[in-house]
Write the structure tokens for this entry.
Amino acid sequence: METMLKDWKLLKTGQLVGDFEGFNESKIYELTDGSFYYQTEDKFHHCEMPDPVLKIYTDGTKQILVPEGLNDYTEIQETTAFRCKVMNDFRGWSGDTIFELENGEWWKQDQYEFKYFYSYRPSVVIAKVGDCHILHVNGRNIRVKRLK
């Protein structure tokens, strides 16, 4: 990995909020400094690491995220995002699900997909990715649009 990184410039070293569960398409990574990164690469690598240090590098055109102690990386881009709790019981999404957040905002599922999983008032991240928004909860993502 060090040989591969010799042409890359270190931009940032930071701590991940929570545990690292690997790379997964469209994953959102939140750092303790309040910054958010979106995985742009269609890459999967399952690996569990508690509270890892993440290093972000650039070659001038793209950025990569490298967890310390893992001999792998994924392409990312920094994004704007916020964290908030869902107001009620959460049961995943079913095609046209509306999510009411603690901050008063309402978001609606904007892609057809069915995924059931239960969680009581989970914390979610809403991230701006390109011209759409992604809701990230319990390791899963769905595209959403703001209603209110």
